[in-house]
Amino acid sequence: MRPLTSRDPSTRPAGSPRVSPREKILRRLKFLKFWFPVFLYSGIIFYASSLPDVKPPLEIKNIDKAFHVLEYLPFGFLLARAFIQQRPAVKIWQVVTICSLLYGISDEYHQSFVPGRESSVVDVVADTIGGFLGVWIYLFRQKRIKIKQKTN
Predict the structure, then answer these.
(1) Is the pLDDT of residue 138 over 80?
(2) Of the candidates 144, 134, 36, which has an alpha carbon nearest to the alpha carbon of residue 85?
């Protein structure tokens, strides 16, 4: 007996339209357009966390927390941009904030194995705040764009 594949019409839900190969390619390109920057930036964060013995350029107490916020702000922005394309009805700020928290935890865990680096719960909080600010800026920007389009 031959296994069922996605080309077999009996595997598609009843009433669902057949998707053309061109449509599949366009969906994949759209996915990459919005998610590739997220994956790339996640890799940049991972690489930066892998560098041993990194010291902040300024000798101000807790300035590294500000750098954590600034590091995760674009991450939150890019996540919001990607998620809104996938699931527009989701409460995007909650999803992005949780993703920033989870990636911040994994980043700090990763840093705990890097010589000369230390992990901190306060850094995770700063990462989460950065992700939250990034999604807030994205949503504010989208609202401004909609208002501008209505007035034109």
Answers:
(1) yes
(2) 36
| pTM as predicted | 0.82
Task: Give the model confidence (pLDDT) of 36-70 as tens digits.
Answer: 999 999 999 999 999 998 887 778 888 999 999 99
In this prediction, residues 11-15 reach a mean pLDDT of 61
What does the chain come to in residues? 152
Q: How confident is the model at residue 19 (pLDDT cuts 50, 70, 90)?
A: confident
Counting DSSP H helices and E strands in the chain, the numbers are 4, 0
- The residues, any chain, with a CB within 8 Å of residue 71's CB and separated by 6 or more, are 45, 48, 127, 130
Residue 55: alpha-carbon gap to chain centroid: 26
Mention every residue, 6+ apart, whose C-beta is less than 8 A from residue 104.
68, 72, 123, 124, 126, 127, 128, 131
Q: How far apart are CA 106 and CA 98, in angstroms?
A: 12
31-36, long-range: CB < 8 A, 24+ apart: 34/81, 34/82, 34/85, 34/86, 35/82
Please report how many Cα atoms fall inside a 13 Å half-sphere around the Cα of residue 65, on the Cβ side. Answer: 11
